[in-house]
Here is the input.
Amino acid sequence: MLSQIICKDDVSLKEALKIIDLNGKGVCFVVKGKNLLVGILTDGDIRRALLSGGQFNSKVSIYMNRDFLSLNFDADTQLINQYLSKKGIKIIPLINKRGEVVDYADHENFHSIPVLSPNLNGNELKYLSECIRTNWISSQGKYVNKFEKIFSDMHPGYYSLAVSSGTTALHLTLIALGIKEGDEVIVPDITFAATINAVLYCNATPVICEINSKTWCIDIDSINELITPRTKAIIPVHLYGIPCEMEKLIHIAKDKDIFVIEDCAEAIGSKINKKRVGTYGDCSTFSFYGNKTITTGEGGMALFNCEKIYNKAKLLRDHGMSKTKRYWHDVVGFNYRMTNLQAAVGVAQMERFDQIIKSKQTIFNFYNKKFMGKKGILQLPINSSNIINSSWLYTLILDEYINRDSLIDKLKDLGIDTRPSFNSLCDMPPYKGFTHSKVLKNSQLLSSQGISLPSSSSIKNIQLEHIANIFLDAVASIQKK
Ligand SMILES: Cc1ncc(COP(=O)(O)O)c(C=O)c1O
Here is the structure.
């Protein structure tokens, strides 16, 4: 954060050293009045000042560098990159027309922009330190209950169970619903492999379904033809934050007495007609992996609308151990618990939930506006008035004449990290057998031409502008090989 790197010109060397120590960047920007940049001071400058007779209480204005490099905040990215690649330049203050520092560029913040990075600027460290200080570091402790309560309050009518990952949440819900060998579970062709793996862990048979050409989530019209008397569950995945057409799906499932488990790993905060995803199915699951909208490092949550199934899952989460007779097991369970440390981070994250979602949506709207109708872009993510897309990861589909993988390499060289879409499950060795033979056209297109752009909630406006411009230039210069 900019405020952590700024010091006033009338503070002492000791104060400046404290700022440098906290920001970990080896430097602070010295300002006068309303952030007017008047100098730069490095930890080396302070060391030299002390060795040459300066005192800790000497003013920074005596020892700061007045002859420093700064650039305009809307400076050309290539220029910034040129400076940053020079020896000795690690950080550049970015100033406005009045000479006030408004941002900075360094290798971490500018030179290479990650696709997703966690935003841990709230009470995460405070709550974690409290767990350590009080010795509550395993799965007992107040934060696990607090985190679960936040989810139950947010998803009325659902019981929440904090678990060790999004994958274990999926496995646990399937097992608690009684899914077993011989049962069939319908999953979309485009998802992270955990969705289908969880079905396989139960020795059940996954049945891979086409995705919808507009939502990129499971195609409701294709589901009907896959249902057999053995179909026991459907797992819709709200891909990249885009909600599935849940109302239609629930109608089909209810009619045929099939369970629905919503995989909300990528979609916490998304809504359909003002109703949250995760509140349509019999169960729903969330992931808090480090790149997710809300993170606990590793972690997950399972929600249940039936108390009996919830109690069964709770028992299974904890080795299947009896609550009344110690070390007595009636069933084979798992250790799928979340630690108090993870939950402490989760609680801190949820305090800033609205703010994080807002930033994500700003990113989504920015990119959508910037890319609308641009050459080389075939399809933008759906933007319909009845849905709220919490915009975990901004993804678009490139025209088929663009070589997506060359584009990714080119962007990497220009300091922008991007991601290809998930591969079609049908194409990968472990899952090939679980599809009907016909080609799934929609999923093939997303799989081969989909690309995700940097979408961290902490991303800055100048970075967004920079990414979008570089991206469009790169798209214009790349053809299919
Ligand atoms: C759609 C989907 N389902 C399940 C998972 C598994 O979550 P985890 O990595 O927490 O096990 C992920 C993500 O990583 C995911 O994207």
User: Anything to note?
Assistant: The chain has a mean pLDDT of 94. The chain is about 35% helix and 15% strand. Residues 165-167, 191-192, 194-195, 237, 263, 265-266, 287, 289, 300 surround pyridoxal-5'-phosphate (CB under 6 Å). The CA atoms of residues 31 and 37 lie 5 Å apart.
